[in-house]
Sequence to fold (242 residues):
Amino acid sequence: MSRYLHRPAHRQAPESRPYRRRPVRVKTGFHYIITPPGFDGTGKHYMGREISDVMGWQSHDWLDRPERESEERTDLLLQALELRPGMVIADIGAGTGYLSRRMSSAVGPDGRIHAVDVQPMMVRMLQRLTRINGFANIEPSRCAEHDAQLPERSLDMAIMLDVYHELSCPHEMLASIVRATRPGGRIVFVEFKEEDPDIPIKPLHKMSETRVRREASVHRLVWERTVSHLPWQHVIFFRRAR
Fold:
């Protein structure tokens, strides 16, 4: 299933599933609230936001659709990232490696891209693509839903391209990404603009800048800047506090 908006904005919960709020405590002390799911949602809520369904590996063709570069202007995203040779980067929720493959030449042979995904089939597809196309500096690996499973203080940058809104354990996962980032390193959220109703993406797959900054504020992250001139997305940069 793609993220394109092609169905009514809401769906009713089946009558057999009465509305109930059930708090779920996690080890961090945060609570998730469980309700019947909304349209394209999981029914799991974090800081007032319903977490969206994950786009499964069966829709991998949508990630590499020919029109994606022109729709999202990936070239502008790459310019905004200001990548340098030798950087160590994590592509969180890398999928088929759409972004990893485009970052590979910028970090060069002395750099490294950890392309992590929670779906085993996505990881297998990415392993095959990197092997066939000779991307020696891309290292695909499987992560857990709550942990990126990367070495502490090893990253210059971590980036989530249209991913954060789908994380089933956003608090725990972002905490693990912060741990894996060096002090002064960057964590970058790329999200479809909730503020723009004309962007043809399902509502739960969009996030406002205000929402991203609010959820990031509970971690050791300092907002640096937001790039808003991409047609569909904003690119929100944070720095790990020292």
Notes: The chain is about 25% helix and 30% strand. The CA atoms of residues 66 and 143 lie 28 Å apart. The mean pLDDT is 89.
